[in-house]
Amino acid sequence: MPRTPRISRALAAAAALAVTLAGCGGTPGADSGDGGTGGGTGAEAPADRVEPVTAEAAPELPVTVPSADGRDVTVTAADRIVPLSGSISELVFSLGLGDRVVARDVTATFAQASDLPVVTQAHDVSAESVLSLEPDVVLAEETTGPAEAVDQIRAAGVPLVVLDPAQDLDDVGSRIDAVAAALGVTDEGAKLRARTAERIESARRDIPSGGGKPRVAFLYVRGSASVYLLGGARSGGVSLIEAAGGVDAGKESGLGKDFTPITSEALAKAAPDVLLVMTKGLESVGGVDGLVQLPGVAQTPAAMDRRIASVDDGVLLNYGPRTDAVLRSLVAQIHGPGEGR
Fold first, then answer.
1. Which of 68, 283, 306, 323 is the most buried (most CB within 10 A)?
2. Which DSSP symbol is given to 31?
């Protein structure tokens, strides 16, 4: 299941604190074939495909670029590219280099990448699997590990560029620029950055005028693992919620960290009008019916009005070329009527 660095850290911290909630069984569903909603308002789901900015980009190499781990990395070829996260894969394909990608992370579930071999799961990379594909360049996240695997790839002479994390909407453009620079396609990067910015701004224009700002609580739920977390100021979802014309209920209630175990007290203080969840998380608790019955959740205004917004795990926090579709979906869901109305 896709996890952001914040969620991975939160799960580790919550292992001893996770709240075991009664009546919330269920198992995660299969990978969804779309990118969007799970039944909150019926808003149109973002298509599970990326849209290249050009049919086939031609890298201008060699280039030397800074890596987020403090190194300068020289890339001399990009015929065989291995992106080690779903969000990086999305960027590479969007730049018109998808035909050069030879592997994927488990979170790269969009249609064009779905048949590629998986070499990373939950930020853990198999160095042997990567090296067997004879890559020209590997693109990684700061959270990619273990360190021994990363060192093994570099020791084999493969250029490995580590990217700074995407934490909010302001990071979308810089992530595009960083990947484009590392692969020698800066012109395509400029086009993709401009297109993405224009589409995000267009999505924001869909916010209904004259209405109030709904309080939105970002929940990370996994019923099969008894993990139930409420997002705070550092969850990664705040800028999306605010850009969609909402208020992050966790942040506004004083939760300064990323995620905290759900309690009745925390949710009562947050008082959300809308609950935002990932699609597979919603499936894992039995859908909307299961979510609104969870202890603590059941007493919120959002649950009583059945106002649920859900977005596919693989795109919600990617902060990349499809963020405009996520934002458009969120606008429609959090400002629309609840499922039960």
1. 323
2. P
d(CA 15, CA 157): 38
CA angle 184, 126, 139 (to 5 degrees): 15
Contact 313/1 with Cβ under 8 angstroms? Answer: yes
pLDDT score of 142 more than 90: yes
Q: Which helix (H) or strand (E) holds 191?
A: helix 186-204
Q: How far apart are CA 307 and CA 312, in angstroms?
A: 17
Q: How far apart are CA 116 and CA 106, in angstroms?
A: 10
Provide the β-strand partners of residue 228: 221
Inform me whether the pLDDT recorded for 238 exceeds 90. yes
Report pTM.
0.84
Dist CA 80 CA 70 (whole Å): 24
- What's 317's DSSP letter? T
Q: Report CA Rg, the chain.
A: 20
Q: Nearest to residue 335, comparing CAs of 238, 246, 264?
A: 246
Six token digits for residue 278: 């990932």
pLDDT band at 121 (very low <50, low <70, confident <90, very high): confident
Cβ contact 284:27 at 8 Å: yes
Provide the b/e sequence for 154-187 (b: ≥16 CB within 10 Å).
Answer: eeeebbbbbbebbbebebbbebbebbbbbbbbee
Is the separation of the CB atoms in 277 and 38 below 8 Å? yes
Strands 118-121 and 124-125, by their bridges, are: antiparallel
